[in-house]
Design brief:
This protein has 180 residues and is mainly alpha-helical. Helices cover 72% and strands 0% of the residues.
């Protein structure tokens, strides 16, 4: 499949997808999110942040055709393989993984719909509310949601400015969040 997709050797294809996925995960693990903006540094909190950055990548690639679109599909598949692996590492048994995966997939796609809608309308308040609802559902008021919403809007603009060719070559750059 990769041969058809990228028209290069398999090692280069794997290197591209691994580089992109590593960039997405690294962006999601930036310390500011957890230390300053109070995103829970728990398995679920980390899932939320990787999901958010995967959403940003997918949102950037949604209108592309050909190889960039195929790369986006490969990366979402890689994301869910990683989630499956993480569940197993957390001790979820073989019988429980499919049920949890189905729930996490519904969570991911529900979130992406809310985030996409807010970004398309350029509604930072709605984006902040969706982020708070998903990332800190039990905390009541979460003042840092507005900062995270600003980061997401900025990251969306930064990703939009990056060429599909550069991204398809394995390079994507997320902005650094600014601590308050």
């Amino acid at each position: 499949m990769f041969q058809r997709l990228f028209r290069r050797d398999r090692n280069a294809d794997v290197a591209i997808t691994e580089a992109l996925y590593a960039s997405i995960v690294a962006a999601a693990r930036q310390e500011v999110f957890y230390a300053d903006w109070q995103v829970p540094d728990t398995p679920l909190g980390r899932f939320e942040m990787v999901s958010l950055h995967m959403f940003l990548f997918q949102h950037r690639m949604r209108l592309e055709q050909g190889a960039p679109r195929d790369i986006a599909q490969i990366l979402i598949d890689e994301f869910f393989k990683d989630v499956d692996h993480s569940l197993r590492e957390l001790g979820v048994g073989d019988m429980g993984v499919p049920k949890r995966m189905k729930k996490l997939a519904r969570m991911y796609y529900g979130r992406t719909a809310a985030y996409s809608d807010a970004l398309e309308r350029d509604d930072r308040q709605a984006l902040g509310a969706a982020l708070a609802r998903n990332i800190r559902p039990d905390s009541g008021a979460w003042p840092q949601a507005a900062q995270l919403a600003d980061y997401v809007a900025g990251a969306n603009a930064a990703l939009a400015a990056q060429s599909a060719e550069t991204i398809s070559g394995g390079s994507i750059s997320f902005p650094a969040p600014q601590a308050a």
